Amino acid sequence: MRIVHVRGGVRLNGRKRRAERGRITSLPxxxxxxxxLKQHIGAPAEPVVRVGxxxxxxxxxxxxxxxxxxxxxxxxxxxxxxxxxxxxPHPSGLDTPTITVQSDGEExxxxxxPPIDPLALDAAxxxxxxxxxxxxxxxxxxxxxAVKLRLRTRHPIHTLIVNGAExxxxxxxxxxxxxxxxxxxxxxxxxxxRALEQDRSGPSIRALIAIENNKGDALAALKKAASAHPGIxxxxxxxxxxMGSEKHLIRAVTGKEVPARALAPEIGVLxxxxxxxFAIHRALRFGKPLISRIVTLxxxxxxxxQNFEVLIGTPVSALLRAAGGLRQPPARLLMGGPMxxxxxxxxxxxIVKGTSGIxxxxxxxxxxxxxxxxxxxxxxxxxxxxGLVPVEMVSQIRGGRLEGALRFGLxxxxxxxxxxxxxxxxxxxxxxxNFAKGELTARERTKHKAEEARRLAERRRLRLAQQAEARAAxxxxxxxxxxxxxxxxxxxxxxxxxxxxxxxx
Amino acid sequence: xxxxxxxxxxxxxxxxxxxxxxxxxMLALVPATAWGITQYGWPAxxxxxxxxxxxxxxxxxxxxxxxxxxxxxxxxxxALLTGWLLAMTLPPWSPWWIGVLGAVFAIVVSKHVFGGxxxxxxxxxxxxxVVLLVAFPLEMTTWVAPHVxxxxxxxxxxxxxSITFQSALDTDAIxxxxxxxxxxxxxxxxxxxxxxxxxxxxVREALLGEQYGSLGEGSAALLAAGGLLLLLTxxxxxxxxxxxLGSVALVATLxxxxxxxxxxxxxxxLLSGGLVLGALFIATDPxxxxxxxxxxxxxxxxxxxxxxxxxTWGGYPEGVAFAVLLMNAVTPIIxxxxxxxxxxxxxxxxxxxxxxxxxxxPAKPWGTNVPRGSRP
Lengths: 505, 376
Ligand code: SF4
Ligand code: SF4
What we know:
Number of strands of chain A: 17
Number of domains of chain B: 2
Helix content of chain A: 25-40%
Shape of chain A: globular
Strand content of chain A: 15-25%
Largest interface: A-B, 82 and 58 residues
Radius of gyration of chain A: 28 Å
Low-confidence stretches of chain B: 1-5, 170-174, 184-198, 359-375
Oligomer: heterodimer
Strand order of the largest sheet of chain B: 1-2
Mean pLDDT of chain A: 88
Bound molecules: iron/sulfur cluster
Helix content of chain B: 55-70%
């Protein structure tokens, strides 16, 4: 299959070697687990347990308040010891609503639904089970998987791309998963295909598993597992960051370009991560909710980098301890990859569904240096996979002209950080771009609020006007009424009082 | 905006730096410079040292005057490189004050008055050169025949000091025209084709640099080798050199075909004067050239065409410096109008159509009326 060239991007030093060898190991059950109620895009889940309650492994802890959300489940059996705010795995270290479970070490599962053949279910039932299992995109964005699958009802899907590119340096969790659990991933893909094919009478949907060509073993394993299924093919894509970016992967694999501001399903393509496919397999075959994931622990400060199967809610510190600790204090502790990942304020934050890796980097690896003046070398322009001019956007942002940055395409930026990675002057371009995006969102919100206030004020004004009119009408009607029924004036005065603006307002 | 206290992604870096780029450019200049020195002897060394020294001192002085710390600014090596490039374009036996004046002009007036590294509109080395050319036409067009160093005829170190520092150059005895200056003389080339005279063009001599000219007009082969290093290390991207050399080759071939006796051919134009130096080392200055690839192609082609025009019909024998400065002036316009196609959009910035979409309502493309901002 022909791979289409994608503009820009860089070849990164993968630094994957240290963590990619060992098999995935399970972590011992930590003493307590912090399960945030919001680990996904959308509304936070609402707690359905009480403090002091004993919960079983896999039991529902938080229920989604609406369709755009996901439930969270107890990662192990134990007692709910707190429902409240705990530090979020976010650079700010701010608190987020969290349910804390003290494990009893019993690992006692809740009674699981009897196994059924998921391939015999209809699309709606499959999606319902995926939603109930709390499966979200495990590539990092944590978009509820069922919501994504349901987009099929609005846009005809012809291609399912399974993203195994894993283009971030250090991370090898998808690589190991593909090598060790290829059959399970393929099963998850078949289940997704089943859901997607449901209401299509035309040509069947193809599934393409895209893997960067530096992962030969993973490619071979999946190729073997997929060989029995004609609709599923593996495809090697160039090792080039940001190959794993959804829109760029689609372009490379199908040659199609998702229009700006549009979603991939609108051109008939759905992208799911390999980890998501595995989670779907587990949810449908065994009825197990998403309570664990594979996490890469790596970085120069880590004694023995490796991939772990970690319970959601495990404190990062517990992971570090279980892995033999650090061999030196890290210069930076990260969640996610080094290109797009977030700095952690400390190690007392939980692993969440979107955590692909925990990296403890040394200062030599970061090689931070102060920013120098921009020399307009155009490197950021040449490497931007989105065809943007980061240097101009950032000079607009620095000058306080957000509208200027917008006109330069700020909203088309996928935040991949390739520009900042390549800038010889080390200008924190992505930091400025993200700042501007945050600022715009905040402005939108204020604008929205202002509009809402204006709308309410307008409604009130209209109501008052109507009342005034009504009053005027009654007032003009009164003389006539008085004229006709001079004794009935009191009765006609009554409506006036009930619609009194002071009372109504 | 205030600085965000949280360190944002990415948390790794390619390892490139301004300093690394400058060092690589200087490395790439070493072979051609060394060869030039063997051709022009000690006076060339003196001039190089004086010019580079003046540039560095001027940089330190300007940084201090601007209230900045001197260290990181000097450490990036940009001033050193400017001085070096300027020295490469001067007649090798020029007196010391030519180098000093040029360097001071380049650094102080064309760089720091604009705001320092990254803020200048014009290529500093070329500003220095053009100012000298206009102010001191005689000194700037006095060329010596190559004097292979350590030969009896070449000046000794002590003699070289008097050449550089006392202007003790007996111009009449050893000066001559460069090949370009010669070509521009009366159109009819009177000398016989094989007469070994000053100002005659010879491919072998041009490649090796055994001809009248500045250090930078010396060996085209060694300069090209240095340029290759820059292309391979990614310090210089291909569009500007390719467009500049290509456009000169194209028009030269065209005019040569029309009237061979009057117009030199492509090889002559490519190997003469400072074209190779200009295309690889000067026009490619990141600060004063466009940021997009298409913009760089336009810029390079403009430099090439202007160089040819000035050489052929203009008032000066060599046009690279003027051509580069003229194109520097239009770089903001190029950067304003030429932008890459944004992913998912047409070239004019309108979102691509969805498969089942009716022709989109003409959306307002982004990118209109945006003033070219200063550098971040
Ligand atoms: S890569 Fe950095 S120095 Fe080069 S143009 Fe972009 S922002 Fe400026
Ligand atoms: S972060 Fe944005 S501007 Fe920078 S390279 Fe990625 S898409 Fe382009």
